[in-house]
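Hey, I'm writing a tutorial for new members on how sequence and structure tokens pair up, and I'd like a real worked example in the thread rather than a made-up one. If someone can provide the structure for the chain below, I'll link this post from the tutorial.
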Amino acid sequence: MKKLIQIFAILFFVSTLAACMTTYNPVPQGYQGETATIDDTFRTMATSTGRFFYLSKVNGKDVNNAIRATNQATYGQGMVLSPVGFSRKVPAEEMTLTLVAQVHHAAPINYMFNSGTNYIVTGDVSFIPEAGQSYLVKGYLSSDFSSVWLVNSAGEQVSDAVVLKGDPDKNAAVIAKLVKGKVVLPEPPKTQATIKKQVAITTESFDNPLFFLEQGLSAEAIIKKLGEPDHIRYIEKGFFNNKPEIQIFHFTDLGSVQMVKSPADGQFYSKLTYNVNSQEHYQFVDVVNQADGTETQILGKKFYNIGVYKEQYLDALANKLWQNKYNVDGRMLDGVAYYCKIIANAQTMRYQAMLKSLVADKDVPSKLRRHCKAAKKDIDKLKLATVEQFEFM
């Protein structure tokens, strides 16, 4: 294991220096041929750690990747990792790709603290991308089996896989040829899931495509998978902090994807997803209407991140807010306060009269009036055209 720690220390040092070095562009200047796209991906494990699956070389030459971009984004943040993805164009011709799957930490000392779980596997595969297609680097890391390979936009394995079985100090990675079958991952350990309370509205199944969406995908890859977002919310970079610029891609009845701007190439990459479940997908209004205090609090926090822009759904939130304006239950109060924020983010004048009435009513709890006042103020700043007002009396 000492050998593995040394490897990671060297990798961290080299990758940090490499972030400042010029890298090879697989598509040379003036290239007129057809191209494809390869995106790196990652999975965050904790605030200081992530698992990265990336392309490190094309035809033996170093290329920019998610590790380099993440090191650049993380610089100056101590033990906090700020993961970002990376996407690049490649020629639609045969090439040798060096793929890597590894655990990566924000600081070198974390490799010592996590000496038993610093997994890594790397190797070269031959690949011929199809013109106009998008590919992702995928992988799996564990103590006795690690692997990395390419998939297409449908999630199908399209390349050979680099596979490492057993102790990485003793065993070398091998190439599992695609013609012999796809990567077979170990069965995950069975655990007893905690059942969360939900409003029993519908038992219809719902396969939400956001649930399996990879972290680190480019905006182009997201749009290819899901189509254009129904709404984009912009969160600018803070003036007094080092937080990156963020965009929230909202997909009605599915959820939202938090996209983070990378300092490496100025592009936006997926970091978090907020998913709508089957009840919320099929009968959102009923879910809101029937929710108790605890459920309203959960809904408020969740849909503050997702966003609500459909008038029918906003009316349901506004109605719940108005009905519970005198409610003293802390959870219900917290939930409907989030509804004020959701209405503000929707940027519509439809609820201004209701918000004004709530702010003026001294019997409304001060916390709720404060959030209503802030929502009304934010919308007033936009100087939007007057629209038909929500009927709340």
